[in-house]
């Protein structure tokens, strides 16, 4: 196993939706010993603490929740991602999924400078392909993939020089897609894998095909893992629960395949709301998944007593 420099970056973003609690996510990952789990695998770990948003002035918006704050987070996290990628493999401890507006942007900037294509694997119950104009809820955690692919409506956000190509994205685990997103997604070439396809053919086949494309292009790979990718029976600490999600074993298989591929260059751990957790259960599951992505083998799994 190739040992890496893992750079832990706290992203206590809680502006992407109206239900509070994700700002506690970074501390929950630290309490669940993410750093220790990575060090036990031989990796060097550097915890850079928590990012803070740039200064902003909030103003009421007729539709969108915390627009200015989310823009401020996007700018700050894009810079943190660029810096982290220069020094190692950044792991962003979130924080709601609005944090990926910034982390993916930073990864795009880094990949462009490196002269390599960026690919994004989105492990999520939701497609997060809204724009500020199409979201009914006004929650910007449902917009990151809309933003990085260059959809219109993101006035005030950092400018994207070159949009992320649709062919470079795979969304796996889908089971709750709004009508406006569905209509927009059907006109794209984004690889979309819903839970029915996983039920019918398994999760390894579509993931393998995506990873093969990344490898063939010598691409960099940003992985964004949402707690609600997993079934809420095993990962309850999320405000957007959708029954029928991936099992813990399916989650570990995805992470093990990512490790085997050697392609992952950055990782988001998002939507952990410790306020909704059961004795740290979800935080520990997410730490265990991250450890699998970084090389923990089946035989090395610790026994958990929740």
Question: What features would you describe in this structure?
Answer:
This protein is α/β, with parallel strands linked by helices and 306 residues long. The chain is 36% helix and 16% strand. The protein has ten helices and eight strands. It has an eight-stranded parallel beta sheet with strand order 2-1-3-8-7-4-5-6, sandwiched between helices. Strand 4 (118-123), helix 5 and strand 5 form a beta-alpha-beta unit. Helix 9 (248-261) packs parallel to helix 10 (281-293). The longest helix is centred in the first third of the chain and has 21 residues, at 67-87. The mean pLDDT is 96.
Uncertain parts? none
Structural class: alpha/beta
Backbone shape: globular
C-alpha Rg, in Å?
Answer: 17 Å
Strand runs, count:
8
Number of helices: 10
Beta-strand fraction estimate: 15-25%
Q: What's the arrangement of strands in the largest beta sheet?
A: 2-1-3-8-7-4-5-6
What string gives the helices and strands in order?
A: EHHEHEHEHEHEHHEHEH
Helicity range: 25-40%
Cα distance, first to last residue? 30 Å
Overall mean pLDDT score? Answer: 96
């Amino acid at each position: 196993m190739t040992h890496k420099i893992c750079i832990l970056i706290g992203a206590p973003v809680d502006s992407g939706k109206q239900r509070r609690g994700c700002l506690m996510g970074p501390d929950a990952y630290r309490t669940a010993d993410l750093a220790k789990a990575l060090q036990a695998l031989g990796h060097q770990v550097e915890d850079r603490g928590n990012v803070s948003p740039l200064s902003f002035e909030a103003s009421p918006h007729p539709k969108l929740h915390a627009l200015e704050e989310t823009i401020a987070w996007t700018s700050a996290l894009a810079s943190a991602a660029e810096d982290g990628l220069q020094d190692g493999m950044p792991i962003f401890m979130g924080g709601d999924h609005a944090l990926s507006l910034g982390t993916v942007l930073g990864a795009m900037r880094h990949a462009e400078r490196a002269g390599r294509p960026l690919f994004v694997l989105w492990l999520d119950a939701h497609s997060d392909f809204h724009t500020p104009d199409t979201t009914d809820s006004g929650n910007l955690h449902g917009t990151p993939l809309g933003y990085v692919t260059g959809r219109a409506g993101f006035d005030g956000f950092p400018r994207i020089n070159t949009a992320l190509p649709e062919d470079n994205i795979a969304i796996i685990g889908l089971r709750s897609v709004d009508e406006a997103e569905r209509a927009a997604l059907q006109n794209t070439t984004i690889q979309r894998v819903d839970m029915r396809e996983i039920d019918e053919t398994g999760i390894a086949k579509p993931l393998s095909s995506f990873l093969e494309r990344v490898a063939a292009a010598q691409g960099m790979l940003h992985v964004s893992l949402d707690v609600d990718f997993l079934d809420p029976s095993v990962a309850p600490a999320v405000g957007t629960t959708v029954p029928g999600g991936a099992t813990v074993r399916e989650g570990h298989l995805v992470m093990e395949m990512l490790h085997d591929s050697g392609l992952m260059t950055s990782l988001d751990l998002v939507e952990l709301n410790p306020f909704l957790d059961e004795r740290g259960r979800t935080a520990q599951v997410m730490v265990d998944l991250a450890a699998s992505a970084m090389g923990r083998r089946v035989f090395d799994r610790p026994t958990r007593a929740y």
